[in-house]
Structure formats: C-alpha cells, structure tokens
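Aim 2, interim progress. The first record below pairs a target sequence with its structure tokens.
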Amino acid sequence: MEDIKGKVKDFILTHVLPGESPANLRDDTPLRSNGILDSISTLRLIQFVEAQFEIEVSIGDANSSSFNSIDSIAAYVVAKKAAG
C-alpha cells in the first residue's frame, strides 16, 4: 500500500502541485474539500490511477470519498485489485 501512496503522491506533486514541498501533502490531507483537486485535476488523477494500477474507476467511485485523500485512493486501489 505504501508503494501506491508514493506513486499517487508523486503524481499529485508533479502534476497538480508542482513546486510544493512533499512535507505539506500528508496521506490524509483532504484533496477535494481543501481545493487541491478540481474537476480537471480529478479526471487526470483518475486516468493516472487507471493506467498505473490497471483498474477501472466507475463514475460513482470517482465522485465518492474514495478520491478525497491519498489514503483513501490507496485503499480504493487495493480493494479494486483484490476484487479482480
């Protein structure tokens, strides 16, 4: 799970928050409610997650709390991979 968190965090720091210190983005930082992810960056993150981890993210899941923190994204990926 730490590998998933690291990849997601790297993506966010590179593509959503370039120049931001990694120390300022914790695994439990709310990404949507804090305004870090807008609709476009959420879409880009979902595309990254689907390609990187070879899963399909449903629209319902994309709009849920599954994509509100690095912790929740990692848990979502693990659950999707386990479900096959």
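The second target in this work package is listed in the same format:
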Amino acid sequence: MQHLNALLVYLTGPVLIVALLGTGLFLTFRMKFVQFRGLIEGIRITSGKYNDPRHPGDVTHFKALCGALSATVGVGNIAGVAAAIAIGGPGAVFWMWMTAILGMAVKFTECTLAQQFRIVHEDGTVSGGPMYYIERGLGRKFKPLAILFAFFTVFASFGIGNMVQSNQVAQILDSTFGIPPVITGVVISIMTGLVIVGGMRRIGQVAGILVPFMSIAYVGGALVILAMNAGAIIPSLALIFKSAFTGTAAAGGFAGSAIMLALRSGVSRGLFSNEAGLGSAPIIHAAAKTRIPVREGLVALLEPFIDTLVICTMTALVIVTSDLCGSGLRDAPLTSAAFENGFAGGRYIVTFTIPLFAYSTAISWSYYGDRAFEYLLGRRAIMPFRIIYCIVLFFGAIASSTTAWVGTVWAYADIANLLMAFPNLLALWLLSGVVAKSLKAYMKDYGASVLESDAPMEMAPMENEA
C-alpha cells in the first residue's frame, strides 16, 4: 500500500495537473471555447434532431450519451467526491469544477476523433476509441502507443469499473441492511452478465432507462436537503472558493500543503468522475449512429457538465453544508452521514442510488474493457473477457472492507486511470488540428458533405485488422 500511495502521489502531482489542465486549456482555445458555444447544439443533437437509422453505428446519440454517463455517474459521484473533500478539504470541489469545465473541450475533441477514425465491421458493429485514432490518425509508427493505451484500459476496467463499484455496493448494503457481501457479489455479477452479453446495443438500452432515473432520484434528494438548509449554501460556496487558494485541508496541514492537496485531490477526483482526457468515453461514443463526427463530439461535451457540474456539485454541497468535512469520515459513509444530517432517513437516498450508480458503471466499463481486449487479441477474445469481468466483480464484492484494503483499491483505480490518460492526452495534442478544422466547417454550416467525406469509416473484416 505504501508503494502504491507513493506512485499515486507522484502521478497526481505537478505532472498530472499540468498534463490534464494544460491540455484542457490548450483545447479550449484551439476549439475556440466549444464548451460554451456548442452546448446548445449538443442538446439539440441529443434530443434526436439529426437521428437517422441508416447511419452506421450501434446506438443513437442519446443512448451513446447515456452509456458514457452510466460509466461516469458512479461511485465516484458519491464516494469519490467525499474522498476528495476528506483529503483536500472543501477547496478540492473548486478544482473539480475547473477540471470539468476544461474537460468539456477535451471530451469534445476525443469523441470527435473516435468517430472520425472508427472501424465499422461487416456485421454493422463498431470498434473505436483512442487506440484506433492513435494508430490510424497518427500512423502505424504510433501503434505501440495504441497498444499501451489498450492494455491500460483493460487494466483500468477491473479497477474503476469493477472492484471499486462492487466493493462499495457490498459495504453499504451490508452496513445498512445486513446483506452478506457474497449475496451482493452473486447478484451484481449475474445482472451485469445478462446485460453485457448483448453488447453495446443492450448496454445502450439499459443505460437509456437507468441513467435518467437514477440521476433525477439522486439530484432530487440532494435538492430537497439543500432547500431545507438554504441558509448554508452561500457560506459553503464561499468556503469552497476560499479553501481552493488559502484554506486548510480537512486532514490538517499548513496552508501551502492544503492548497496542493486540494488541487491534487480535486483534479484526480475530477478525472475519476467525468473521465475527460481518460480516453474511455470515446470508445462508447464511437458506436453512435452518425456520419458527421463533430456532432457526437458536441453530444459528448455534455457529460462533464451533467456528471461533475451538476451531480458531483450536489454531493459536495450536501457534505459542506452539513459541517461534517472534518468528522474523520470519508468515501460513501461521509456522503451517507451528510444526507442523514439533512433529514431523518436521508441516508437511504445514498443507499438506494449507490447500487444503481455502481451497476451502471460496471456495465459500461465492461464495454470499454472488451473493446480494448478486442484490439489487443481479436474479436474471439471478447466473450472470455466478459466472463472474467463478471467473476472479478464477485471477488471485489466479497473482499475485505477494511480501510486499508479499500484505500488500496482506490489507489489502484487512480493509477490505472492515469496510465490511460497520458497516451490519450498526447494524441489529443497531435490530432487537435484535425478536429479544429472539422469544427470550423460544422459551425459555419457549410461542411456536412465535406465532413462526411473526411471520416474514414471503411468496412473492416470480421477479425480485427489490428
């Protein structure tokens, strides 16, 4: 655990902050603040304005968005935000917001590239994501980098999308209802297997129902608590802004160390939550039915807004207004205690939504893992991966719930995410000109035919050519 923490501190230090925030700033200016001028168009596209069943792909824009959100709207929104505040103090929330705002430009860029360089197979299914735009966009000499990304994605899928989710669900159901972790493990493994065996189309169908329902339920509960404690909202927001630059971390320490803790925990938790720059979401957005890559990029930029600026903010405000930041609690128990502090029985909102959030994350991350596994080993490797994925879910649920073990799992998940991010961020810098050109054409409303002809979506043989 000590070595994992040392590696995590190194990776989440100045290197990550410069890489992630620097890329976000660069792409914000390169794409001329697309996160602001493209927001309304992204909503129009998601609503189905341009849907055409004849377009290549597996799912609609809305289902692709829900599929990606089902991966990001997970335990990180509940336990991850609480962990960031427990470690970095309220100031960590500010840096989560900054990561999300800049991340909207990053998400737009990576998901546009995923569409532009995806492969449509003879059976109509799609394979796409950073491993494809690294190899096909940058050239064959960059294939080792694409392989590295795919390997890290498989590695990460068993952390952020798997063990973290099932372990947190098992913990909260055991502590609240006394349900044995082995029962939780069996149920979540079987339910996940029933969905992922149907591939992206079934994942999209389930996510299209689950994501709106669980998001509204959670945000609605948080809004009720905040309405009951409205007088504390403005002081809490002031504390968040103040702590980001001058405050003391919840765990203690002098001002300089507190600022760094807030920055580091906020940025890493922001990445964990909305996954902008991670390279995961492009894998699922590549499956959307469209012939114009920019459109899916505009849909994708909605994710950090919904995930972090809305849902994570609800969690953060409930915690900060509860005055429990320095209570010694962390992860899901801190969020649960903050909701209970809002009104009697409030903890059941967390108890109810965590299994839904975790389940949705598990099914979407299985898709990320199996696309990466397919890239590495071919299409015949997909089903074995899905079986292993469900088995690991079970073992994640029954594993020890001690603080040390949970800390190890979170550290493992963070490291796996960061190892994915670096190859992807490099590709975004090198391919940003391709996206900027397509965006300019789209925004001028003259480039639909040009955009379609630019997108290399040739048919691929059934066995992955990689």
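The beta strands are 119-121, 126-127, 459-460. This observation will shape the mutagenesis plan for the next reporting period.
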